[in-house]
Design brief:
By secondary structure, this protein is α/β, with parallel strands linked by helices. About 40% of the residues lie in helices and about 15% in strands. An eight-stranded parallel beta barrel has the order 1-2-3-4-5-6-7-9, surrounded by four helices.
């Protein structure tokens, strides 16, 4: 089992050695491509959800030379690199733009993409036989029949399962589709929106200040004091809804925002096609990403010869006795009989 780690620049690869059970994923939005997307759509607001990959552009790679170097370093270390194209749906007029990005990426030596849209996945399978697809968690594959439909596409190699499934459901989906790989979230940001469509859909309410900034253009310069206060309060409540002030101990991980499924790893190891444990912390600092990677790697090592209870005990020893209490950090809740 490998750990999928978000990466934002070539220098971050220096921490990892060849042969480690790790892979990288990133957003890639070269400036020339962003310009074409904005030219194709009728307005900047209409273009942004597609150009920004449902996220802010920050944290993604926009420089072609930086991506070229990243690919070279990954090849040197024999580490897989996936590029995210997480747009939920792609309008017909943008197919040519995304095809241009795929062709450009293939020229750089990238042929593994994270894709959400079934129709575009089908299009890639038919047009670009060299492309491999990891189906994004945003596709919301929640049962074995949906997984089978996606895995029938020739380019789909892996399906990333969403955060809210139980261990039983994950194992059932995987065992029902033995010819496809599956990925689960071992650690994730705590957010009530399980679909991860941060900047694409949450602008309809004042819960996410970032979304209003990028989608609606509302920022500190053009908003009222009462609106800014409301957004700041909503954001504070959102980011601290689990255990405010949770003791940080000696770790660089923001524990009060950490959602965890570590104790399910021993169960998932019994399913050979559950191959990847994902860290969902794009945009976080490198120190925190490395800290979570080290924890995930240690958990997988323990899980190879131990039980879920042994993993829970290790997590509690490192993060505090209350970490596994009450289900507040748990993505696999106790009502499913796992935690």
């Amino acid at each position: 089992m490998r750990v999928a780690v978000p990466i934002s620049n070539p220098a971050e690869t220096e921490y990892f050695d060849s042969g480690q059970d790790v892979e990288f994923f990133c957003g890639y939005m070269p400036e020339w491509w962003l310009k074409k997307v904005y030219e194709t759509m009728p307005s900047a607001a209409a273009a942004l959800p597609y150009a920004a990959n449902n996220r802010s552009i920050q944290g993604s790679i926009t420089d072609v030379e930086a991506m070229r170097i990243l690919v070279e370093k990954c090849n040197e270390k024999n580490i897989e690199l996936l590029v995210a194209m997480n747009v939920k749906t792609i309008p017909p007029q943008l197919y040519v733009r995304f095809d241009e990005l795929v062709e450009h990426s293939l020229e750089l030596g990238i042929n593994y993409f994270i894709v959400t849209s079934y129709e575009y996945s089908k299009h890639l399978s038919e047009r670009y036989p060299a492309v491999r697809i990891a189906l994004s968690c945003l596709a919301q594959t929640t049962n074995s029949y949906a997984a089978r439909r996606f895995s029938e596409l020739s380019s789909v190699r892996r399906i990333m399962l969403p955060r809210h499934l139980s261990a039983y459901e994950i194992c059932n989906i995987a065992t029902s589709n033995p010819n496809c790989e599956f990925e689960f979230f071992i650690f994730s940001n705590r957010c009530p929106y399980d679909d991860g469509r941060c900047n694409a859909s949450h602008a309809f309410s004042a819960i996410c200040r970032e979304a209003l900034h990028y989608i609606a253009g509302i920022n500190d310069d053009n908003s009222s004091e009462s609106l800014r206060h409301s957004l700041q309060t909503a954001r504070f409540n959102l980011l601290n809804w689990t255990l405010p002030g949770f003791e940080q101990a000696e770790h660089s991980v923001r524990l009060n925002q950490l959602a965890c499924s570590a104790c399910s790893v021993p169960i998932f190891l019994d399913c050979p096609n559950i191959t990847t444990a994902k860290l969902s912390i794009r945009g976080r600092g490198f120190e925190e990403r490395i800290a979570q990677y080290e924890i995930a790697s240690r958990v997988i090592s323990i899980a190879r010869s131990s039980s879920p209870e042994a993993v829970r005990n290790w997590m509690k020893n490192n993060f505090g006795e209350n970490f596994c209490s009450g289900g507040l950090h748990c993505m696999i809740p106790d009502q499913w009989g796992v935690c």
